[in-house]
């Protein structure tokens, strides 16, 4: 009866808690304490950050959401405490979405932080505020500026040789920081987004709004809400407007086939095609392959990267599958060509005959949002693996969506790609599909064969009906 419930708990939940407490009264004192603790924990507010103070410093560690997806409204419903960042060195770390880093960095600068540092496994601790101007600021090539709605400006991050030493280039974008509406989007790192948010806060413009947009979401996130502003807002029409024919290409393959590496290389190759907008989405909830992981592997830090990646793994659930399917559908509404790196199924499960379950129950809903598939198969087992995927997809009437088969050759060879195209399925052979090659092969140096394959896939999905 003395428990103070959060405002968000409605009367039905309060009644349920009351009944639960009455049940606890009927059991032993020891078990009662354990049961009551579990009940109360179910009603505590979401804990999306942990805040630690020390002399002159403030450490914020972002916490993982149980379902790996925080609702952006948590920054307004359970806000960071203001007044604690003034004249302090702020350290940000933890697995969190870009908007969480951007919001926290903006608030810290607004609150008078002396310095802001962001930790990322690949690059370590990176100072994002204030930026130390170099003698000569070079354009690293991983930013694009374009006009947005109502005189606003869109800053898009693109794949490239990302380095914290190039952050001063952001401060040189004077036209960006004069705008009253700034939208941050694209493929980047948490320290890139945090640095951009810091600059938006430091270059004070009356009434400025800073948004974060990802094609996988239905709208944008307002990073600096004030006076009850909604956190989730419509995105700029230049970003969220429907292209009219957005297509999703799913990348399928067994574990360790090189499919994730192939999806990264294909995404880079799309920059050299005639597709107007593209996006790569990691659709493997249980075992994602983030950018920082493949870049650490390229730095010969695979053991460390594997340990960090293991902490990001989760068990599949129906809600996770449904959420990813919805996110891919959101991508198709605003992006012309989306690459989905799908999970490889269940292998060596120890159940029954121990045969691979390539399309587990409810997975067909997720795979079914794709317009076409590329199946990546190891060269030493090409026939059996390809047939396994065909049969698994055929059970859900999806086999006719296979538009290409990629034979994964020796991963230790130099990157290469050759293909043959006819009216049927595109056949390709790709070597060098090693995780260490993803970071080494940045977009400007994507091997020519991958560009030709990317264009063939674009033509097949965007400009013609897929034929098997």
Query: What would you call the structural class?
Result: alpha/beta
Q: In one word, what is the shape?
A: globular
What is the CA–CA distance across the termini?
A: 66 Å
The chain-level mean pLDDT equals 82
Q: Topology, please?
A:
Layout: H1 11-24, H2 29-41, E1 49-54, E2 57-62, H3 74-77, E3 89-93, H4 98-110, E4 115-120, E5 124-129, E6 143-147, E7 153-157, H5 168-171, H6 174-177, E8 181-186, H7 190-202, E9 209-213, E10 220-222, E11 232-233, H8 237-240, E12 247-253, H9 259-269, E13 278-282, H10 291-298, H11 302-310, H12 318-334, E14 337-341, H13 363-367, E15 372-378, H14 382-394, E16 402-408, E17 416-420, E18 426-431, H15 436-440, H16 448-462
Give a verbal description of the structure.
- The chain has about 475 residues and is α/β, with parallel strands linked by helices.
- It has 16 helices and 18 strands.
- The protein has helices spanning about 10-25, 30-40, 75, 100-110, 170, 175, 190-200, 235-240, 260-270, 290-300, 300-310, 320-335, 365, 380-395, 435-440, 450-460, and strands spanning about 50-55, 55-60, 90-95, 115-120, 125-130, 145, 155, 180-185, 210-215, 220, 230-235, 245-255, 280, 335-340, 370-380, 400-410, 415-420, 425-430.
- The chain has a seven-stranded mixed beta sheet, with helices on both faces. Strands 6-7-8-9-10-11 form a six-stranded mixed beta sheet. It has a five-stranded mixed beta sheet with strand order 1-2-3-4-5, covered by helices on one side.
- Helix 1 packs antiparallel against helix 2 (about 30-40) and helix 9 packs across helix 16 (about 450-460).
- About 40% of the residues are buried.
- Residues about 1-25 have low confidence and may be disordered.
């Amino acid at each position: 009866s003395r428990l103070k419930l959060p405002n968000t708990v409605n009367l039905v939940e309060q009644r349920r808690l009351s009944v639960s407490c009455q049940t606890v009264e009927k059991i032993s004192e020891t078990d009662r304490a354990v049961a009551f603790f579990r009940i109360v924990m179910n009603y505590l507010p979401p804990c999306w950050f942990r805040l630690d103070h020390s002399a002159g410093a403030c450490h914020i560690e972002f916490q993982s959401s149980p379902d790996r997806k925080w609702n952006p409204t948590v920054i307004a419903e359970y806000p960071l405490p203001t007044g604690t960042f003034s004249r302090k060195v702020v350290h940000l770390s933890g697995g969190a979405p870009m908007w969480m880093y951007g919001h926290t960095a903006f608030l810290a600068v607004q609150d008078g932080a002396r310095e802001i540092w962001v930790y990322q496994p690949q690059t370590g601790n990176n100072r994002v505020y204030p930026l130390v101007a170099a003698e000569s600021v070079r354009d690293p090539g991983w930013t694009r500026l374009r006009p947005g709605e109502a005189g606003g400006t869109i800053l898009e991050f693109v794949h490239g040789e990302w380095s914290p030493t190039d952050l001063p280039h952001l401060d040189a974008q004077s036209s960006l920081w004069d705008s009253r509406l700034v939208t941050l989007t694209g493929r980047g790192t948490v320290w890139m987004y945090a640095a951009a948010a810091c600059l938006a806060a430091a270059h004070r413009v009356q009434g400025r709004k800073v948004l974060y947009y990802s094609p996988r979401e239905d709208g944008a996130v307002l990073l600096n809400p004030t006076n009850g502003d909604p956190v989730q807002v419509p995105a700029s029409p230049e970003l969220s407007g429907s292209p009219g024919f957005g297509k999703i290409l799913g990348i399928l393959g067994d574990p360790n086939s090189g499919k994730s590496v192939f999806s990264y290389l294909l995404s880079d190759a799309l920059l050299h095609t005639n597709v107007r907008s593209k996006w790569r989405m990691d659709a493997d909830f249980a075992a994602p392959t983030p950018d920082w992981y493949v870049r650490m592997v390229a730095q010969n830090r695979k053991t460390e990267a594997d340990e960090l990646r293991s902490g990001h793994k989760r068990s599949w659930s129906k809600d996770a599958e449904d959420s990813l399917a919805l996110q891919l559908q959101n991508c198709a509404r605003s992006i012309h060509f989306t690459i989905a790196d799908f999970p490889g199924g269940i292998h060596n499960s120890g159940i029954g005959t121990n045969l691979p379950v390539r399309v587990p129950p409810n997975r067909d809903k997720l795979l079914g949002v794709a317009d076409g598939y590329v199946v990546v198969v190891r060269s030493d087992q090409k026939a059996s693996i390809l047939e396994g995927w065909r049969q698994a997809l055929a059970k859900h009437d999806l086999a006719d969506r296979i538009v290409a088969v990629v034979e994964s050759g020796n991963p230790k060879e130099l990157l290469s790609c050759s293909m043959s195209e006819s009216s049927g399925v595109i056949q390709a052979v790709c070597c060098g599909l090693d995780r260490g090659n993803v970071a080494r092969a940045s977009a400007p140096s994507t091997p020519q064969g991958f560009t030709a394959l990317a264009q063939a896939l674009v033509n097949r999905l965007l400009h013609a009906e897929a034929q098997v």
